[in-house]
Every structure is written in structure tokens, then in C-alpha cells.
Amino acid sequence: MRSVLLTGLTSVYVALLAGACAQPVAPAMEPWPAADMAAPFPTDNPSTPIKIELGRRLFYDGDLSWDGTMSCATCHQQDRGFADSNKTRAGFDGTAGERNIQTLANVAWMQSLTWGGPHVDTLEHQALIPIEGFVPVEMGFGGKPEGALAQRLSDQACYPQMFRAAFPERGGKIDMDTITMALAAFQRSLVSLDAPYDRWRRGDVAAISEEAKRGAALFEEKKCSSCHAGPHFTDAALGGRKAEESFHRLAVPKDGKDSGLMRITQKTEDAGRFRTPGLRNVALSAPYMHDGEVATLSDAVRRHFAGGGDDPRLQQTAGDGEVAQLVAFLESLTDEGFVTDARFSRPPAGCPVKADAALVAAEENGRRQHNSLEGP
Ligand code: HEC
Ligand code: HEC
């Protein structure tokens, strides 16, 4: 029954494609978002400019690791779409990493975070995992005296001023709540919606190559877009559904390998299911998949045609030409403006709050109390 339905649908696609073949046009689906679409934020953590700036400073600060050597940006590098070029990366103390580092573009829209954590549903919660987590150890504050990181930041010259400016309603308190709230606000500012593909979807017919246009049509036809859905290219960014619905199995894991969603649910049918990754800037983030075992983009595409899973969408075939077209399409998701945007780069050394005379005046009292705290 299902295969009859699928065959029927395929012929509709073929008919549509035949019509579009002479000059591929952007699929007439939902209207495409503007390049400057703002990301959503929770009502209890509004993204103010000063909070985003504080989060940026924290993101690039090695002091967030126990020995001061590893920042979020050590692993999440802007020029790689906020991923890195390794299969996995060891934590600050050499503890082996377990999973491939994820990109962070448009992470604000994700309903669940990480490859295997349906319960990790806010950026505020997620940020605690690298800082304090044990599986694996990354930045190493887990098990250390409570408040050690907050104290370290309080002892510096700039952070107390920045926290007061960013969190006036909390009296500028520096604790794991405000640290993770600021990190989350910065990450919500990481919006990538101006790749050549976006410009094509918004009407610039010359923005991408003919090959990429054919790849974009194939991306629909081969149902890639049913999992890598919408403008963020993942069903994990679609609202109104259970987090588990964005977890899919490309292959059954070998014994002793990462079982993905099953680690959390303990259900055997969840073995090998991972959250659909977004595909923004994916050409910059090799190697691929949850384990980083796939070296190239074309092999990452081919992996979906290996017939490893039981999903009918993963039982299709594709020739080398089609794979090349899909890769050309994926390359058109590289947003040069995003990966070179100065607002997302390592912040300058000086303290940004001092420069703001109005803010300095407003914070006069609080700062006087802290003037004795001189740090590195
Ligand atoms: C040692 C390398 C490393 C460091 C340091 C690190 N991360 Fe990650 N990050 C990873 C890995 C690996 C994953 C995937 C983890 C998983 O799926 O279990 C990840 C996943 C994420 C995700 C989820 C993205 C998504 O699409 O779901 C976010 C958000 C994130 N990291 C933010 C941060 C922040 C904020 C910091 C600093 C406080 C940080 N990371 C520090 C390696 C790192
Ligand atoms: C049934 C849902 C599903 C479909 C359909 C699907 N994907 Fe995926 N895709 C995933 C999942 C899940 C992963 C991660 C798997 C893993 O890590 O083991 C993934 C990974 C990827 C990656 C690697 C991304 C990274 O950052 O590591 C690329 C590239 C990709 N898919 C492209 C495609 C293309 C092109 C198609 C169509 C031919 C497609 N996908 C169809 C679910 C899907």
C-alpha cells in the first residue's frame, strides 16, 4: 500500500521536474525567510545587545575550562561554521571525545540539542554540558568546588561590569544561571540565512549554479527535505512535534558503538537513531556524522543510499551525477558573510562596558564596590 502511494508521489515529482528541467526554478514552497530574520528567545532570557556581547566574550574565554586552556571556540570555530575539522576532540585533560562537534548556525531554532539528547531542549541547559559534564569530560568544572567558575569570573576587572549591565534585574549576579543565559543569547545571535541558496530562494536567479539548482530539485525529489526540513535543514527546528521524531537511523550501530537515542530511552528500536543535523555551512564542517567517520560531503550523501536503515526514504539509489548535484546544492549553503561576520568572532581585548558612558553612570554605585577586584 505504502509503496503504491510512494510510486504515485514519485511520478508527480517526475512530472514537476520534467516541467522544470529546461530551467530549474526555486521550489515554490513556503516563503523563504529574510536574511535578517531574528532568532526566537525565551521570555525569561531576552537577547539584549549587551548580553549577547557578554556571551560572546564567555564563548571565546579559556577561563571557562578548569585549566584555562579551552574555550567553547576551541571546538566551535567560526571559519568552520562553528564546528572543527576533527572526527572528535579530546577534553581539556585529554579525555577522548565521543562525538563529532556540531555546527551552531541557527541553533536558536532547534527544539532539541546534541546528536542524542531529546531532553536537552534549551541552549541554557546545553551550555552546562561542556562546562560541567563527565561523559565525556570537556571543560572540566564537573566535580570542582561549587561556584569556582563564577568566582574566577568575578575576580576579573571586566566581567562584573558586564554582568551588571547584562543582568540588572539580578543585580549583576555571576552564577551558572547568568553565565549560561549569556552564552545562550550569543548563540541565538548566530543566524545564517544569506548563503547563495537563500539568495536564489529569494529571487536572485544567478545566485547558484545550474548544477546546484538540479541538486536543490533532487533534494526535494529524494525526500532529503523531509528530514533536513525547512530553512534550517533539520526537522529538529520544526515546532509542534516530539523531540524524538527528529531522530532517524541511517545504519544499525555495530556492537559497542554509540547507540544514539537508545542511550537515553533504553529502547532497542532507538539504537542508531540520531537527531537530524542542520546542513547550513555543511561544506565547511567535514568530517561528518555523529562519529565523524565520514570524511567527505559526497560520502556523507552516499551514506543515505547505503540501505542501512529500514526507512523507505533511505532505500533509494543515486548515481554519481546525482550525488555531485546534491553536493553542489549543499555547497550553496555556505554563507561567507556568516563565517566572516566580525560580530561572531573573537572579541577585542578591551572591556566593552567601560566605553559606554551612559552605562558607566548608571552602574556607578555597583562598580564602586567592585573596583578593588583587579584581575588578569
Ligand atoms: C571539547 C570540544 C567542545 C567544547 C569545548 C564545547 N563543545 Fe559544544 N559540542 C561539542 C560536541 C562533541 C557536540 C556534540 C555533543 C553530543 O551530541 O553529544 C557539541 C554540541 C554543542 C551544541 C549542540 C548543537 C546542536 O545542533 O544541537 C551546542 C549548542 C554547543 N555544543 C555549545 C557549546 C558551548 C556554549 C560551549 C562552551 C561553554 C561548548 N559547546 C564547548 C564539542 C565541544
Ligand atoms: C530519514 C531522515 C533523513 C533523510 C531522508 C536524509 N537525511 Fe541526511 N541525515 C539524517 C541524519 C539522522 C543524519 C546524521 C546521521 C548520523 O550521524 O549517524 C544525517 C546526516 C547528513 C549529512 C551529514 C551532516 C553532518 O553535519 O554530519 C548530510 C550532508 C546529509 N545528511 C545530507 C542528506 C541528503 C543530501 C539527503 C537526501 C539524499 C539526506 N541527507 C536525507 C537524516 C536524514
Quick rundown:
With 376 residues, the chain is mainly α.
Write the topology of this structure.
Blueprint: H1 2-20, H2 49-59, H3 72-75, H4 123-132, H5 148-154, H6 159-166, H7 176-188, H8 196-201, H9 210-221, H10 224-227, E1 247-249, H11 262-265, E2 273-275, H12 297-303, H13 320-331, H14 336-340, H15 357-362, H16 364-370
Antiparallel strand pairs: 1-2
Helix pairs in contact: 2-6, 2-7, 4-7, 9-13, 12-13
Bound molecules: heme C (2 copies).
How would you describe what is shown here?
By secondary structure, the protein is mainly α. Helix content is 36%, strand content 2%. It has 16 helices and two strands. Helix 2 crosses helix 7 and helix 12 crosses helix 13. It is globular. The N terminus and C terminus are likely disordered.
